[in-house]
Write the structure tokens for this entry.
Amino acid sequence: MDQNIKKENPFDRLFMNQEEQYSSLYTNLQNSRKIEEFKKYLRHELESNLTLEHPIFSELSRPTSVELLQLMVLQGYQLTKMFARYVAMLYYNCPVSKEFELDRMKLAANLYEEETGRLSKTTGHLQLMQRFARSIRLTEEELESATPQPETLDLINYRLELVSNPKTFHMGAAAVMIASEGQNLEKKNGKDRHQLLPDGLKLNDYDLAFFTVHAAEDVYHVRDGIELVAKLCQNQKMQEEAVQAIHQTCARFWRFYDGIQRVYKSKKTHPLI
């Protein structure tokens, strides 16, 4: 037997394993800090791209703006018709693993609420929008026959493309769960969206349930979206793509209001159109 072969000290391996464990722990702590910072950044980017600052909302608060509100609802209904499909596609494409088990359950609950309204003890969210439309004298025929404006269609298709492709799942989650559901959390001068409506409409809580339900529920949906997106984005490129999806979605919401404002001004200028 070669006497020059150094016998392994069992304590060397023990200390080596401890160093590896400490190094791994330190890396995990660093990653945890980075994830928490990214979560804060996602919320900051949402809150920095407010669409309630659009001039259409100043116009909307005037007593004579019922026609403008009707135009907004006709176009908004096109978005509402699609929303459950977005959530369904997110659920479908969410990774099937232990790590994302809770995320899938939350998406399933979100979809269940969209379609039934049972979690909020109301009714399906599309039906809540139809209820509000009736309260401002829009008929079901008018809702169903309305044609999406180009800006509305762009907003619909942008999100649909992201949620349909598994490769852009992180961007779809950012666009739908953060940027879109985050629209209902915005306030202007301390008022929620539905509180900016003309006072003369005499709407009650039953009429406004679509807005009050979303104002309450979307606090949690946005939080869940931030958690999911932060977990999904494993590198800087994916993080940048998710943030870009928030920017692009909010920008499209702004253009959505541009389109409504354009049609409204056209009708005011040319009443027979």
Notes: The two ends are 102 Å apart (CA to CA). The chain has a mean pLDDT of 89. The chain has ten helices and no strands.
